[in-house]
Amino acid sequence: MVVAIATDVDLVRARAEGRAQAVALGFTRTDATLIATAISEIARNIIVHAGQGRIAIRGLQEPERHGLVVVAEDDGPGIRDVEAALQDGRSGRGGFGLGLPGARRLMDEFEVVSAQDAGTTVTMTKWRVRTRLELLHARRSPGG
Amino acid sequence: MSVAILQHGDYLIASIQADLTDGQVLELRDTLADRLGVHRIRGIIIDVTAMDVIDSFVARSLRSLAITTRLRGAETVIVGIQPDVAIALVQFSLNLEPLHTALDLDEGQALLDRWTTGAGRGAG
Fold first, then answer.
1. Which end of chain B is less crowded, N or C, counting CB atoms within 10 A of the terminal residue's CB?
2. Does residue B7 belong to the interface with chain A, where contact is any CB pair within 8 Å?
3. At A133, phi and psi to the nearest 5?
4. Domains identified in chain B, total number
């Protein structure tokens, strides 16, 4: 599922979509909230720094765990110094500069690929270990 | 707008009914700041029970509302922060000073009553 990001209304749609998919993948309500909040931060980064972009949200099903992957892409001016942008309190445009570092703390894996004038791609994942009961069910019905 | 604003005595109660866009958050902040002066309001309660995401932008806007309110001689209390939203805010390690919070509307009103009556005014 890809959500186009251009206005603050899209931001609401993106976090609702993230929450819905997280719940469908069996994440707790708390994890779904953390995911929706992280999506909100990176979607706003797209609007503020690039004007527009897109956020793809999908599930990852591994034998022992389920994941939710969020890929946010834009064709904006890019981030000159990614390491600096991931530090707390740094921001290219005022504010607290909490967007990227905040989203990183809410997720399990977080990667930023960016270069000046070459856009930015943020890939972030949250994992959920499958319970013993789920694994038992999966073994009984192969492919489940 | 997805926010109901009621006046109750010296207080304004803003009840957020659904997830807000950034534009609606700023609109709420400006509306409350305006009404504060018109109605001689001494306290604002913002009920965020229906908000299932409070990210850094919303938190910062609420904080700036609280500062604006205080500069105009009134206090703001945020009530109804959901447990999972609270966990997200902690992970952000956001500094929300000088925002005051209470569990629900009743507690929020009790807090404002303590501050805005007699000697209690200005404490906290």
1. C
2. no
3. -65, -45
4. 1
Look at the domain A2-140 and name its fold.
Heat Shock Protein 90 (3.30.565)
Q: Inter-chain contact B88–A40, Cβ cutoff 8 Å?
A: no
**pLDDT tens digit sequence for A35-92:** 999 999 999 999 999 999 999 999 999 989 999 999 999 999 998 888 888 887 654 4
Partner B contacted by A24 (CB < 8 A): no
| Residue B44, domain extent | 3-120
Tokens read off for A101: 């570092």
**Which of A7, A29, A105 has its CB closest to that of B92?**
A105
CATH number of the domain within which B46 lies: 3.30.750.24
Tens digits of residue pLDDT in B62-94: 999 999 899 988 999 999 999 999 999 988 877
Which parts of chain A fold into alpha helices (H)? 8-24, 29-45, 82-85, 99-106, 132-140
pLDDT for residue A98 = 73
Instruction: Round to whole Å and give the CA distance between A1 and A86.
Output: 27
Task: For chain A, positions 25-64, list CB contacts with chain B under 8 A.
Answer: 29-30, 32-34, 36-37, 40-41, 44
User: CB-based contact (8 Å) between B106 and chain A?
Assistant: no
- From the list B20, B23, B92, the residue facing A102 with the nearest CB is B92
